[in-house]
Write a structure and sequence with these properties.
- Helices cover 43% and strands 23% of the residues.
- It has 173 residues and is an alpha+beta fold.
- The protein has two domains: 4-58; 73-172, no CATH class.
- It has a five-stranded mixed β-sheet with strand order 1-2-3-4-5.
- α1 (4-30) runs antiparallel to α2 (36-58).
- The two termini are 39 Å apart.
- 16% of the residues are buried.
């Protein structure tokens, strides 16, 4: 994964290319070349590209990795206070705890709002059981609630539904 320092280096090279295109555009206008207006578009595009690379060099793009966490996929996210992740039906309680904590860290965003309700983000973990062909049953295994206000939340609460995890072991046998 690219780091902010990589994007800063790309920004420098893109900035140099932008200046070169600007000089070439100015030269094209002075010498009245036929492609001078195309060079204006190219220079404008390079300015936008350089600004985008610069903004990527400011914000970290890294994801939190918690040891023992299982792979998950984001199933639902309303952009405010609720999200659902999908996990494997082979997950254990310790893996589920680590996975919920990792998802809570990765799904945090300062842009989330409580919409006048609970100022916490609730992330539920679910899996799909297939007891017979053609039948799929969603099974919610646990949830985590974290603050919407700060990235570092020491009061994060993780709840694992032990009875639902027990259903996984009986369903797989």
């Amino acid at each position: 994964m690219l780091s902010p320092s990589d994007f800063l280096q790309y920004t420098q090279w893109s900035g140099i290319a932008t200046v070169a295109f600007a000089v070439l555009t100015l030269l094209a206008f002075i010498l009245k070349w036929g492609l001078r207006f195309r060079l204006v578009g190219t220079t404008g595009f390079m300015l936008v590209l350089t600004a985008g690379l610069f903004s990527l060099s400011l914000a970290p793009l890294s994801r939190t990795v918690i040891p023992g966490a299982a792979q998950y996929s984001l199933i639902y996210d309303n952009g405010a206070t609720q999200a659902v992740i999908g996990v494997s039906d082979q997950i254990t309680a310790s893996e589920l705890d680590a996975t919920l904590r990792q998802a809570a860290s990765n799904l945090y965003s300062a842009g989330r709002s409580s919409l006048g309700g609970d100022p916490k983000l609730a992330i539920r973990a679910r899996t799909i059981l297939h007891p017979e062909p053609g039948l799929s049953i969603p099974l919610y295994l646990g949830k985590v609630k974290r603050s919407l206000a700060s990235r570092e939340d020491d009061a994060m609460s993780v709840e694992i539904y032990q009875d639902k995890l027990a259903q996984l072991t009986t369903a797989s046998s």
